[in-house]
Amino acid sequence: MKGKGKAAQQPQEKDCPLQFPDLTIVNHEEECKRYTAVLGRPTTESISIEELDPLQTDLELLLASVGRRLKLLESEIQILQNWQDKKDIKTPLIKGKVQVEPPSSNSAKRGKFAASTPDDRPTKKFKDSSGKSAAPPATVSSPVARAKTKIPQVKGHDGDSVHSPAELPRVVKNECVDRFWQAMEAYSRPVTEEDIKYLEEQIRKLEDEESLYLKIPPLGRHYREVWAEEDLLEEMTDGNKVNDKRRHTNHSNHTNSTATTNGTNGTTDASSLLKKAENSMEDSPYGPLTQRIVSALLEENIMTPMDDIITDFGENVEEASAISPRMLAKQLNIGNPAALERRIQRELEEQGILEPEDDEVEDDPNDEVLTELKQAQANLKPLIQWKIRHLKDLLKNAKDQQARQQPWKKFEECDAKLHEEYRKLNVARQKKKPNLKKERESVKKVLKEWWSVYQAVDDSYDQ
Amino acid sequence: MGRSKGKSQDTGGGGGGPSGPSSSSLPNNRASSLSPAPVISASSSTTSAQADTKIKDLKKELFGLIHNIQEERDRGQHNIVNIDKTHERMQQEARVTPYYKNKLRGLYNTAMQDAEAEAELLRKALDRITEIKSLKESKRQDSKQPKPIMRRGVLMTLLQQNATTLPLWVSKPGEKPPPLCGAVPADNNYVCNKNDKIAARVKSVDGEENWILASVVTFNSQTNKYEVDDIDAEEGKERHSISRRRIVPLPIYRANPETDPEALFPKGTLVLALYPQTTCFYRGLVDEPPKNHEDDYSVLFEDTSYPSGYSPPLMVAQRYVIACKEDKKK
């Protein structure tokens, strides 16, 4: 008999959920003095009153230990029962669960056997649940030890169908853990090349866009013109549609082609129409400079010189005023009014009368849109800078992290190797091979290597 | 002190009961029915003698039970040893075969049965003890009219003894601790019995309200009032008549932390606890609940004379720690 029983939890066996509690009973000789004394008396004697109290204490001690023993036994029996029950009923469930989990080749599990999934798949056929000896150790626990958990799980499993029932409570239990780590994956997964590329592209884009956003686009055509053009175009297309409908009923093929050509030429037609409209509004096709010079040469502001010119040519005077300036210009054969305007401008500039106009459009301080635009750009600039700076930082960190992951990768590979070796050892053991020396040696070797890699990882973390 | 040496002597009265010959000289187990009392002096009531006989019988029973218990334990010991051996063997092997599992199951079941039987006997024995004690107590209460004026120290020792010998409640598997076990509160319609110990909020002569340790005398169900006696039997502090709302019954059982931790006040709970060396209850916080069945609570009493507002932790037995309903601070 040992001393006062405490429920010493012995380390869990790799396959057995039983806890093997220490069920030893109280040594009443040591602990319950009064009790022992009473026991020692022959039946002829009895208990004295003052002994009642210490006796009560002793009995209570015994009762407490019995109570504890009962509790432990009950829990053990429960575990055993669950184990038995789950053996047959729940195997398909386990199987399904197992195949759902991705192969955990980089599990950080420090179990005692390999986690290599290709080996496990065939062994996870739990059809013959009684064939525990035949099946090589299967990683029934690979669904349990999740690939993403960096927390090493000490529970290794010498798995076969016998132990899969025990998996069910554990698998169920670990579902929450799995879900948690799945959620965390986005934050804690290792940095990949893709991430780095993405970051670099973002930086580049930003730097390009900088110029894009900060440029002030030149003043385009005035919106009045653009809108007028667009409106006209719209009306044209509408009209075409109506025409098409009408002509469609008349079955004329050529109208279709006309319609299409109309459509394609729509914009150009519209712009030309507008131009015509605009031009028809103008009195004269001549540029402003030309007009100014000519008017300066005139004595009066009436357009009489034109009339004179016309009469010089001996044209029909009565009809002169009726002729539009455009027709006049044609008759006068003056040529391109725009070119004339440009020539005059050049001459004046050479003479020094007229200062060369800036080709640039001067920023009109009254242009509110422009000021707004400038302001927005001013706001945007520091933001872009900030963003670029941070992206660069992030990129640097990502690259650092990548470097740090290297030892981890190595470690995981080594881990897998170790599992493999141990699995081989177990297979050999099961086959009852007489000499396990070779396997043991290989395990030892890999173990040494593993240990050194582990140290490296550990050190790298401490930095 | 109330407890007397010797076998069945009364403290105050009873005269010459069958105190001379020790009860152990009786060879047989007498039935616990009342046997004709031997010649007793007229002053002692028949009940006292009956109680004595009863006590004797109970003691006899107890004795027998104890022997039975030990037999049971010895028997169970064998099984436990088997279980241990099986454990060892199982742990040496790499795997758990069904053979072992079945064997273990069988062994566990047997062990459970043994343990249950042992527990039964133990409980019976403890019940006997409680009966004996209560008989003695009631005998003492009835017979002595004038209460012996106990010195303070004597009273305190008595209180302490009461606390340690409060019966322990060990739940069977699946059982829940009953009301008035440790921290489990009493039922709503619980009526205290005579001589039950309670905490009562009474107004003293100088107008102060205090929670005192008292003993129940009677209960009047019509007026819902209790008559209580202050156990500190000084003059002027004796009998009070108060409504049941001012009464909190003290626990009848101690809770076993190993089997029923939920029947203990957890750390940080506000409780009313008996201040050591006094007979008054004061507010405090539980610093540490008891760890095994013999332990006491460690309580921090509210005390404005300390800078933190609380006294250093003081030990108070389970019996004298009750839940505190939020009252205005004293």
UniProtKB/TrEMBL annotation, chain A:
Domain of life the protein comes from: Eukaryota
One GO MF term: transcription coactivator activity
Subcellular localization(s) per the UniProt record: Nucleus
Signal peptide range in chain numbering: none
GO biological process terms held by the UniProt record: regulation of transcription by RNA polymerase II
Residue ranges with Low complexity bias: 133-144, 252-270
Basic and acidic residues bias (residue ranges): 118-130
Chief localization: nucleus
Region ranges (Disordered): 96-144, 238-270
Keywords attached to this entry: Nucleus, Transcription, Transcription regulation
Keyword field contains Isomerase: no
Cellular component terms per the entry's GO annotation: nucleus; SAGA complex
Family the UniProt entry places it in: Belongs to the NGG1 family.
Listed name of the protein: Transcriptional adapter 3
